[in-house]
Structures are given as structure tokens and as C-alpha cells.
């Protein structure tokens, strides 16, 4: 066999091996992101029972509890950031300040959005009932994000993503419908608050996904929780922040801050780095499923057929997205007969849910 032919075959084998390795790496990264987002949704789902117990024990309103939740999360994250083994307080403070200076407007909006959609959701629950608040607030976000991403990228979501989104929204409606509140005092105002919550949630997710490409997730979580707590403080102060200190509610508020907020949002922002916003909010619909199951286990709420069916649809949707992350499609540039551009000459790949699955973080110059 001629030497040049032998060399060509070796070169081709090397390219194939490199692309196969990159594809496997991208698939693993995409699946890990979906697991991180799933964990975030499950942790968020535990907050509902915690908030209910704290409210009954202390008499605090929902916004005040939300403030304490963000405040304790910010305190935990600031301590972690300022007093780690690899960082002195001065170094940690400089890193936070540098990250904030890099994108001050976006980070402030992300933090304020974190506070706003929680407050609006609580208002929607109070005025319109759990069913309206859950279906509208959580259901409108993936629809808005999918429309935004389609308009921005001029690529429609994959068939699997659309099917998973539809199944997840139907599952959400079934779970929420099992807890319809027929005594809602102001359903119309509750509906408006729920729409506002969903719009802010979608916008905050889109902003956060953009920001995670240049800011470490833990840093973004710290800044977002701090700004969110500051945003909620005036409303919470009017609602009332005083309560009699007791071990149980204080411990639960600590859990709500450290686990359901600090850890959950760190996982959420990490998962967003390799996942489109519309897919992320579909996966985190595990939150209402977790809340419903905990209500059955801990406060003896009945487990109806609608909740079971809705849970099955939600789990099926997440499983569909997880399996879909292992099915790469040929990049558009290569389909057109051109080499695909990527990091340092590597094959291009888009985030989970785009037309070029599986996920890879996009080069800085091409990020939206």
C-alpha cells in the first residue's frame, strides 16, 4: 500500500476517533446538565411543604418567607465564596465584584427577576388558587422560551423536544387540576399575577442562561440571591418580618435557603450552560410533581388518578429529553457540505433542545 494512502487512512481514523470522543463527551455533558436541572426541580419541589410549615408556625406571609429564604441562601453562599480553602475573603470579594462589573445590568435583572417571579407566584396562589398559579406561571414559561429561541435562532425545536414539552404541560395541568381551589377570592387578579410570574420566570431564565456562559454558576447564584433578597426586603417589611424564634422554623428556613435555593439554583445555573432555556424549564416541571408527592407523604393529601397520570407524563417527558441527548444530529454546516466550526476546530454542537444536539458550550463570539 502506498505511503500516502496509508497516511490518509491513519489521518481519517484519527479524525473519526476525535469526533467520536467529542460526541461521547458532548452526550455525557448534555445528560449531566439534564440531571442537574432535574435535581434543581426536585429540590424546589420540597420548598412548598417547608413554606407551609413555616407559615403555620410563625404566622409569616409568603413574601416574608421568600425574603428569609433568599437572605439565608445569600448568607450561606457568601460564606462559601469568601471562606473556602482556595480563597481568602479578599480574593472571594474581588471575584464577586469582578463578576458583577462584567455584566451589572444583566445580573441585577436576573436577581430582581428571581425575587419578582416568586413574589408574583405567591400573589397568584393567594388570589387565584394553586391550580391557576401553577398551570399558568410554570406552563407559560416553556412556551415563551421556545418561541423566543425559535425567533432568535430561526430554527424550530426538535420533534422530541416539542413532544416532551406538550406531555410535560399536560402533566402539569393534571397535577394542578387535582388541587383546584374553588374558593379563590380574586381569580382574575390571580390569573394576571400568574401570567406576570411566568413571563418574568421565562425572561429570568433566558438572561441567566446568557450570563452562565461567562460567570461561574456559584458566583451567579450568590449575586442573584443577594440582589433578590434586597429586592424583596421592602415588600416583606410591609407584610411583616417579626416572628417568635423557634428551633423548628429557623431550621426549616435554613434548609429552604441552603438547599432549596442555594444548592438548587447552583445546579440550575450549571445545567443551563449546556441546555436551552425552553428545555430547562420543562425539566424543572419536576417541581410540582415533587411537591404533590410530598403532600401525599407528609400531610396526608389524597393521591388521585390525575396526579398519577400527570406525574407519569412529566417523568416521561424528562426521560424523552434525557434519551434525546444521546442522539446527535449532523450539524447544519456539514449537511451543506461545509466543515463545521467549533472550539479550536472541533465539531460544532448546540445546546440540548437545539437543532444540533448534543450539547456543547458555544464559543464566546457566537453566544447570543
TrEMBL record:
Predominant location: membrane
Coiled coil: none
UniProt feature, compositional bias: Low complexity: 338-351
Pfam families in the cross-refs: EamA
Source organism (scientific name): Actinoplanes missouriensis (strain ATCC 14538 / DSM 43046 / CBS 188.64 / JCM 3121 / NBRC 102363 / NCIMB 12654 / NRRL B-3342 / UNCC 431)
NAD as UniProt keyword: no
Protein name stated in the entry: Putative integral membrane protein
Family (UniProt): Belongs to the EamA transporter family.
Listed transmembrane segments: 34-55, 61-84, 96-117, 123-148, 160-180, 186-206, 218-238, 250-272, 279-299, 305-325
Lineage of origin: Bacteria, Bacillati, Actinomycetota, Actinomycetes, Micromonosporales
Sequence ranges assigned to domain EamA in this UniProt record: 35-176, 189-321
Localization terms from the record: Membrane
